[in-house]
Structures are given as structure tokens and as C-alpha cells.
Amino acid sequence: MSNEALLSDEEHKVVAGKNIHDMGVHEKFEYDESFSGPLSQRKHRDVFWLILFIIFWIGMIVVAGLAYSTGTPKRLMYPKDYRGNVCGMDNTKAKDALSSNYTKSELSFLSDTSDLKYVFWPHDGSSEEICIDECPTKGDIANPLCDESINNYIDKDDPYCPYKTESILRRCLPTQLTNTNSSDVINKVKKSVSGSSGLSKVMGDLIQGWYVLLVSIFIAVALSFLWLLVIRKFARFMVFFTIFFYFVMLGLVTWYFWHQAEESDNIADDKKMDTDTTNAKVFRIFFYIMFAVIVLSLCALVFLRKKILLAIAVIKEASKAVSDIPMVVFFPLISFGMLLVLYVWWVPVSMFLMSSGKPRLVTEVPATGDPYLVLDYKNEKSINYLGIYHFFGLLWTNAFIVALTQGTIAGAIASWYWTRDKSNIPGSPVKESFLRNCKYHLGSYAFGSLIIAIIQLLRVILEYTERQMKKASGENKFVKYLFYAMRCCLKCMESTMKFINRNAYIMIAVYGQSFCKSTKRAFHLIGRNLFRIMAINIVGDFLLFLGKLSVCILTGIIAMAMCKADDNMSLYVIPSVLSAVLAYLVASGFMAVFEMAIDTILLSFCEDCERHDGSSVEKEPYASEELQEFMTNIQHNKHQSKKKHKKSSSDDEQQNPEVNVSGSGSGSD
């Protein structure tokens, strides 16, 4: 990339008379003739965290090896008979681990069911499930004929197949529920699997409508690009429409609470019911709260009106950047590929790990009859700890891939912003940003993603602890609200860290400093431009949400029309809803790129304001003409505030001349 976008090795050394890596993070950016965007000369940063990440992944590979050597995923995928034998598996292997504590006769029920992969519930309502080689397809309650595959497993004195069946998830379920015995079986089946018949229809419709899902993805991509075009051409209208829509929704909700309060009052007067009086009070409280929200929102709108106009300009600038670098939109596909590889690795290892328990026998006490032994498997504590390790690896790696994606997008957009001739962007910004990040900053992304992963793990542990406490001691209001408060704190902490990380990655992409220094620099830059950034984030986030919602709804409507036109679909709602969900995910990926572009443009603009005041040709800002109008206003306001400060200082000196006299006297002494 040319020096319009990147500093050369010599240019990198001095920034405003200082090495950029020695600048205090709290200092404002000053004019430097050599600065023109992301630095080319860099060092490997946060190497310790990259080494830690690599060591952690070596541990992940060791865990996978242990899981594959001890796990048996068939235990999770195949059903069991009433004695715990897994259908489709040689259960006699468990005898080796159990022979020291049990006699051969006690273990005789363990059998090799490798060829018996289906479970069947015989006709007697009190009997239990058994493994068979295929589901019975002939016979009924009055017919003594039965499929041969079941003859060896049913009572010889009662040798008939009680009902026709079909295989659902390797469970032989009745095709018709017209007799009492079949109903008894269904009650037992419900304990094993819920809604399997409906599931088969859903799966059938999804297979039948695969083309709808595929077309929906392309429609979502097209609508996302269309939305970008609309934002670029009609940014002002879209932003004001978003604000208008926000106040309309607030007004409707407020009116609803007021209407419900009035209605409850009228009912209470007619029926003299205390409940309706209480409802009226509650609705009136919510009405006052919403009214206060409207008033505060209007005050914020007046206070931030100029910042909202700046938000329009920044959003338009971000849409230009994404349009000029179309590869930045498709880069998340590479990230999606990396995430896909991660999950293809993680899911099978998890299945082997979950099925790594040791065999044991437990005593089953039926409602009628004698107790009997049942084969069961129990995971050791070490397996549970390995599961936590494996799960944390998923969280960390997932956050790492997201961080690398954000850093790559930030580097490409920053290169675009700090290029004066934006119609002729040198090189391939996305490719060069990605390679630069991979070469120098993987450690920084490993550090930032580690923080996010730790917070996410704490949230999962908190949820698990709450569920265990509910099971142990039931519902407790104090505990419930305590956990609710902790969940809110962790959620806020995660959102805050994601915001800080995102801005730190922008600074890393431009200056190549460590994660901590970049975080501090971004934090201070945000602090100096707090209201500006706050307004743009609020408007931008709501606008992005509307974009995702619009793409989701439109795609869902089109998908439903396609499904209804297909006569072979019975539950066309399911493919339609899934299409809408896929569209939302596609739009979310697209909007994430746009959100990162907005943040990068915004921080670059804030830095541009500090570096270039437009007082000379050399100090001409990089911002577009529309953004330069706001920059001029900002510089004008700064000069005005300085003049006022000087004037007030001189007035104080004139009113209190003795201060200067005493000061000079003391100095001479």
C-alpha cells in the first residue's frame, strides 16, 4: 500500500516530535506531516497471550484425544432398553469394569445388541421397552401374525404384534392410536421422546423446502446491500425516521398504560374489586414512568441535536467506505468458515467427552414386581472439569475469531479514511489488514477475547448455579432477585468490555500498539468526545436494528409465499420462520461490518479533528466535505471557548490586581 494509506519505516519514527509508542495515552493527537493512516512498521505485541492461547489449544487437542479414546457417542444417539442396554452397541464390554463387584449371574442381562438398533414398547401397558432389529410393520390387536424380528422378545404365550409402527429417532412408534394398548405405549414413549411425529413432518418439510432456505439467504444478502444503498442515498431521512419511529412507539406504549389504567378504574368502580384498583395503580405508575422517559428523550434530543446531524454524516461516510471496499462485506464469510471449522471440531469432541462415563449398576424398583439391576454410566469429576475446559476453549476461540474479524475490518476502513483520494485506494485494504493483524497482533486479540470468554463463562456458571439451587431448595424470592442482579451486572460488564475491545481493536489497527495501551488511548479519545460518540452509537444501533428487522421480515414474507405455493409442504410455517431466522443472521453479520465501519470512521474523525484544524493546506483534514462542516463548527467552538476563558482571566486580573503584586513580590523575595 502506498504512503497515502501507510507510513513508511522512516515516517513512522516521529509523530509531532515524539515516537508514537512513547506518547501518553491521555495526550491529544497533534498535527504531524508524516502521519497518513495505519502504520507500516510494527512490532509483535502481547506475545505472552498468544503463547498462552497456543498452549491452551494444545490442551484442547489432548482433551480431544482422551475423549476419543474413552467416549462412546452411541450412548447419546441410540435408545436403551429397560435394563439400560444401549441398542446398537455391545454392552457386554461393561462386564470387565463390573466383574469385581458383581457375579456372572447378576451381569447376565448385559447383552450384545449391535444388530438391534431400534427400541420397541410391547403391547402390555405394564411392560418395558426392548431392543429389536427393525420396527414391526404388520399385525394389529386382533391378528396373531407378527413380524419375525420380534418373536424372540415377546411372551411366547401371547405371540402377536400389538400394533403397526414406524421408526422415529430409532424408536418404534405406533402409526395409529386407536386402541387402549397403543395409548399405554404412547404414555411410555413420551418419557423417551417428545413430539417425534411432528418432528418428522418438520424435517420432511425442511428437506422438501431446502431451496427456500437457500433462496432466502441470497434474498437477505440482496436486501442488505439494498439497505446499504438506501442509507447512503437517504441517510438523513432514515435517521429522522428512526427517531420519529422511536417516539411513536414510546407514545403508543404510554397511551396503552394510560388507557389500561382508566379501564381498570372504571371496572373497579362498577364491580368494587380491589384487584382492579391495584391494576389501575400499577398501570398508572408505568404511565408516569413512560411519560418521564418521553420527556427525558425529548430533552436528550434537543441537547444532542447537533450530534445527531453528525451521526447522519458519519453513517453516510461509513456506507461510502463499505461501498468502496466491497470485499469488507464478504470478509465475514472467511470468519464464518473459521467458526464452522471450530464447531465441526468442537461438537464431536463434546459428544465423545459426554459419553466417557464409567459403567455402574443401579437398582430399579418398578411399581409392580421385584427390583432389578439396570446398567448406567456416571461421569467422573475429572471428565466434568475437562468438559469445562473444552467449553471455555469454545468461548475463547469464538471470541478470538470475532476479534480478528473486527480488527481486519477496522484496518481496512481506517486505510480508506486516511487516504485523500478515496476514488483510487491503493492495494487491497482487507487483505493487507488481515495479514498485518495475523503477523503482529494475534496476541492482542487473544488477550481481548480472553477477557470476553471469562465473563461469558462466569455467566454460564451463574446460570448453572441458579438452576441447581432451585432444584435443591425451590423458589426463593431473595435468591431469585440476587441472581437477577448478578446476571444484569455480568451482562453489562460483557457489553461494556465488548465496546471497549471494539474501539481498542481500531487503535491497534491504526497504531499497532499493545492491547492495554490501545485500550487506554481509545478510552481517552472517547472521553474527550463522549457526547458525540454516545449520540452516534444510540442512533446507529437503533438504525442497524431496524435494518436487521426489515431484512428479516421481508425475507420471511417472501419465503412464506414460496412455501404456500408448494403443495407438497404441510407445515409451511416452519421453513418460513427458519428462513426469517437465517435472514436475521445474515443481516446481523452484514450490520456487524457496518457497525464496525461506523465506529472506525467515528474514531478516525475524532482524531482527525485533533490533528488537522484546516488552518493551512498542510493541516487540511481527511474527512469528507460534509464531515468538514462539523469539524469547522467544532474548531470554531473551541476558539470561542478559549477567547471566553482568556477574557474571564483578564477580567479577574483587573478586579484583583493585588494578587499579581503579591505574587511578584513574593517572587522577588
Description of the structure:
66% of the residues lie in helices and 4% in strands. It has a four-stranded mixed beta sheet with strand order 2-1-4-3, with helices on one face. A two-stranded antiparallel ribbon has the order 5-6. It has two domains: 11-63 and 217-233 and 304-611, no CATH class; 76-194, no CATH class. It is built from 19 helices and six strands. A hairpin with a 7-residue loop joins β5 (358-364) and β6 (372-378). The longest helix is centred in the C-terminal third of the chain and has 39 residues, at 573-611. By secondary structure, the chain is mainly alpha-helical. α10 (327-354) packs antiparallel against α11.
Main traits of this protein?
mainly alpha, 4-stranded mixed beta sheet, two-stranded antiparallel sheet, 6 strands, 66% helix, 4% strand, disordered N terminus, disordered C terminus
Helix content: 55-70%
The neighbouring-strand order within the major sheet is: 2-1-4-3
The count of helical stretches stands at 19
Number of strands: 6
Q: What is the residue-averaged pLDDT?
A: 76
Give the terminus-to-terminus CA distance.
62 Å
**How is the main sheet built?**
4 strands, mixed
* Overall SS class: mainly alpha
SSE succession? HHHEEEEHHHHHHHEEHHHHHHHHH
Q: What is the count of structural domains?
A: 2
SSE topology sketch:
Blueprint: H1 47-70, H2 74-77, H3 95-98, E1 118-120, E2 130-132, E3 165-168, E4 171-174, H4 180-192, H5 196-208, H6 210-233, H7 235-271, H8 274-303, H9 305-324, H10 327-354, E5 358-364, E6 372-378, H11 381-417, H12 429-440, H13 442-473, H14 477-511, H15 515-528, H16 530-564, H17 573-611, H18 625-655, H19 657-668
Parallel strand pairs: 1-4
Antiparallel strand pairs: 1-2, 3-4, 5-6
Helix pairs in contact: 1-10, 1-11, 1-13, 6-9, 6-16, 6-17, 7-8, 7-16, 9-16, 9-17, 10-11, 11-12, 11-13, 11-14, 11-17, 13-14, 14-15, 16-17
Main location: membrane
Family: Belongs to the CTL (choline transporter-like) family.
InterPro entries: Choline_transptr-like (IPR007603)
